[in-house]
Amino acid sequence: MHPNDPRLRSFVDVKPESDFPIQNLPYGVISTASDPSPRVGVAIGDFVLDLAALQAAKLLDLPDGVFAQSSINAFMALGLAMWSTTRARISALLRHDNPELRDDAALRARALVPMSDAKLHLPLRVEGFTDFYSSKEHATNVGTMFRDKTNPLLPNWLHIPIGYNGRASTVVVSGTQIHRPRGQLKPPSAELPSFGPCKRLDFELEIGVVIGQPSAMGTTLTEQQAEEMIFGFTLLNDWSARDIQQWEYVPLGPFQAKAFATSISPWIVTREALEPFRVHGPTQDPVPLPYLQQQGPNNYDMALEVNLRTPAMNAPARISATNFKYMYWSSVQQLVHHASSGCAMNVGDLLGSGTVSGPAKDQLGSLLELSWNGAEPVQLPGGETRGFLDDGDSLIMRGWCQADGYRVGFGEVEGTILAAKS
């Protein structure tokens, strides 16, 4: 049976609402108190299957030590055929009717780590980070607020996936606390800029695309080549200092406003696991240039939500719920365009989708939009409001693809805001 077959069941008990059924098997990096060495695992229900332990037991046929590492980069470098073969083997080992692991109590005790006992690390070594701007709804909202209400999209937006090169050095895993950034600020009322803590701190709900195969400098990519280079996807929060951004972005775009932190979830869901949820994206009008035209359905029916918890709240409150299927430019188109000049792509490159916003008010993927630049603060339980994030606020993003009887999910990406460092 194919690892995506909805009939598959594992001997590990998996609740129907779990993000991690046997049809998912996302990759991450863990350590434990009893074994602090980072190694690669896959999530299954409330457990992590330690792949280094399976390899040591000779149940996985891979180069020595490929999973006894602090990132999945070495495994991704093995290529598409090995990704698929390995996922199929892991799926087979976890099946309810396969005794190899199920009936080996000693190995099962070593290899199945309770999620509550595992420390989750950054799952990949990020070689480069590029952030795109590919939601038409988001770009229209931002253009309406800051540029031209009657013509909010810049002339190039409908012809080209817009992006900028960000900082790989400050990509962090879920749970990492984020200090409020400092930077140059110049509100419209000020004559000169000043330097100090950001006052308009925001989040951006995004999906991160993990590149698992390289392309050589000077080469370009077809749609199929780009698709086959994508290893998988992760949740991504592109933290944004809106007041720093407003002053610095002309003429070259975001810089310090987005360089201070980018959070990703600890699990990378493979492209293969998301195959049943592929859909066509919005109609692109005008038709893109030939190199950007795509034949296949390269968007995904993926539910996304944002939850906010303030220090005064006992539980987080949902402030946005949207879907990745709304994205105007697909991840494949983004990668094709990225390499179109001959730019080399590396194993471990990370592409941010850009803010995922839908057409409705409650489907917007940033506080900038939800509060309309602070003019319409978001109402929270208990009477609190937020135009932008306060110190102590925690943002939790979740995402999943729903099937009949199971879901393929990403877990969550969480970050709590701390005061600016002095």
Automatic annotation (TrEMBL):
Positions contributing to Ca(2+) binding: 131, 204, 206, 238
Cofactor(s) in the UniProt record: Ca(2+); Mg(2+)
Residue sites binding Mg(2+) per the record: 238, 258, 262
Gene Ontology biological process terms from the UniProt entry: homogentisate catabolic process; L-phenylalanine catabolic process; L-tyrosine catabolic process
Pfam family, one: FAA_hydrolase
Residue stretches making up the Fumarylacetoacetase N-terminal domain: 23-123
Pathway(s) the chain acts in: Amino-acid degradation; L-phenylalanine degradation; acetoacetate and fumarate from L-phenylalanine: step 6/6
Catalytic machinery residues: 138 (proton acceptor)
InterPro entries the UniProt entry points to: Fumarylacetoacetase (IPR005959), Fumarylacetoacetase-like_C (IPR011234), Fumarylacetoacetase_C_sf (IPR036663), Fumarylacetoacetase_N (IPR015377), Fumarylacetoacetase_N_sf (IPR036462)
Domain Fumarylacetoacetase-like C-terminal intervals: 129-395
Enzyme Commission no: 3.7.1.2
Keywords in alphabetical order: Calcium, Hydrolase, Magnesium, Metal-binding, Phenylalanine catabolism, Tyrosine catabolism
Protein name: fumarylacetoacetase
Residues the entry annotates as binding substrate: 133, 147, 245, 249, 355
One MF annotation (Gene Ontology) recorded for this entry: metal ion binding
